[in-house]
Design a protein that fits this description.
Elements: H1 6-11, E1 16-17, H2 22-40, H3 46-56, E2 64-66, E3 70-72, E4 78-79, E5 84-86, E6 90-93, E7 98-100, E8 105-106, E9 111-113, E10 115-116, H4 121-125, E11 128-131, E12 134-136, E13 141-142, E14 147-148, E15 153-154, E16 159-160, E17 165-166, E18 174-177, E19 182-186, H5 189-193, H6 196-200
Helix pairs in contact: 2-3
């Protein structure tokens, strides 16, 4: 069997050398150059900013807005659905796929980190790491200063409270908060109807 490339190892969730591999270094340099260009553009140049994200990401919807500043590792591993919004200072370390569904709203200073490092100190000091995919469902609201760790899935119609560190999967239709993030309760019909009355007045 032929030896796997570092990129193939990365895609398979195996330990790989991200910092000693010329190909991966060049891909990250390209993505960071694109992010730099994006972050320098004024908000008034909305269409140009949108085109940059479409060029950088693996997949986008037609309707999205990502406030500056934004940073990622590769870009091509990021997929966003329709009506995606992220506030300032979003960081996505996309060594593995990071997928967002439709109607995802992300508050400021959030991070989605597919990258992790081995507990074994010798492997870690060699620069080895791994990357596990992150998936966020439809209709998800993520509060400010939330960190989502490698391998996490967040279900549809869920709210993640501000300051949470999400280390494990979170189911659909719940409010979850904390460090580590835990389900607080299900979202009820009363929650859904809370603001409808005021909207109709």
């Amino acid at each position: 069997m032929m030896n796997k490339t570092e990129k193939e190892k990365m895609e398979l969730g195996l330990l790989y050398d991200a910092n000693g591999n010329e190909s991966l270094i060049k891909e990250r340099e390209y993505a960071k150059e694109i992010c730099f260009q994006y972050n320098q553009l004024p908000p008034s140049r909305a269409e140009e900013r949108k085109d940059i994200i479409k060029k950088l990401f693996g997949k986008t919807g037609n309707s999205f807005l990502i406030e500056s500043s934004f940073y990622c590792d590769y870009g091509y591993n990021i997929e966003i659905g329709e009506n995606f919004y992220s506030n300032h200072n979003l960081v996505i370390l996309d060594g593995a796929k990071v997928t967002f569904g439709d109607n995802v709203f992300i508050a400021p200073n959030c991070g989605f980190y597919t990258a992790g490092h081995p507990l074994d100190v010798e492997q870690r000091n060699m620069g080895l790491e791994y990357a596990y995919p992150i998936k966020v469902g439809n209709n998800v609201w993520i509060g400010g200063n939330v960190s989502v760790m490698p391998g996490v899935t967040i279900g549809d119609n869920t709210v993640i409270g501000g300051g949470s560190v999400v280390t494990k999967n979170i189911p659909s239709g719940v409010i979850a908060v904390g460090n580590p993030c835990r389900v607080l309760r299900e979202i009820t019909d009363e929650d859904k109807n809370k603001y409808k009355k005021s909207m109709n007045e």
